[in-house]
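Kindly inspect both lines:
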Amino acid sequence: MSALLQFGTELRFRDPWLLLLALALPLGIWIRHRRGVPTIVFAPSLFLERLPHSLRRRLSSLPRVFQSLGLLFVVLALARPIQRVRLPLESEGIDILLCLDVSSSMAARDLDPAHTRLDLAKKAAAEFVGGRTSDRFGLIRFARYPDLLSPLTLDHRALTEFLEALQQVQADGLEDLTGIGSAVARAAEILRTSPAKSKVVILLTDGEENVATAETPHEIGPLRAARMCQELGVRVYTIAAGIGRRGSGGEWVDLDTTQVRELAERTGGAFFEARDAGAIAGVYGTIDRLEKVQFEKPRYELRERFLPFLLTALSLLLAGRTLRASPLEVLP
């Protein structure tokens, strides 16, 4: 019933002046009534008033009622009823590449004795992905080299499985370095061909750039990667996880976050520090609020609704005609 009422209140007419034709209906009924009694009076009509109140007598006016209503619906159809229908909002998704550091230091349990830095990072990233159904996500793991594990996809379940399978590289192995610049550059290269209006990289690391140094000028450092992102319209959010790095004597030493901070600022992103168990999830929550999915403005469509009125009119006229040819018809 509520849907029917809503439908009725949303109706408009393209040619409302044609509704004036409805005024001709009572005029036609009045003219027909003024014609008077026919010259030859048929028996049932003559005695109709004297008949008992039978079902046939009660229904004798139905043909005229149906025909009048049918003509009324013809007029309504001619006036071209239309309905203003709101179209579904279409979201403008964001393309996001997650870059997670898998160097051996991510096995530290300084944030939570029960979980490694990488465990906490994976859990927070999975929750972040699960809450953004309209966005495409990709995944890059990096230590010395960046590896694309998942291209941009809406299959969040598959991406989460890749996240869960991440492991640290072997300590002191050939890969156990931190190439932040090369990871961001790889992400920017992937996002280069993205049609999305908003392209984002979220990089989480617990170390400092030690691949691109003064001795390796051919390597891509964080600031060079920042210039690439600026040219491609890619925003970078950087997260420094943990309370620091181990010094030569085993003590904790604060990270030098200058490069990752500047990387984020130059690209229009933001830099965060996560120094306790809940901080990583909190950072992802902040990024979630910053990177809102944009919806297009509400759109409406005018739809013709004359057909239901026309079909109703034909049904009523047919019903009236049928009833006149039924036992309700007055025969000589």
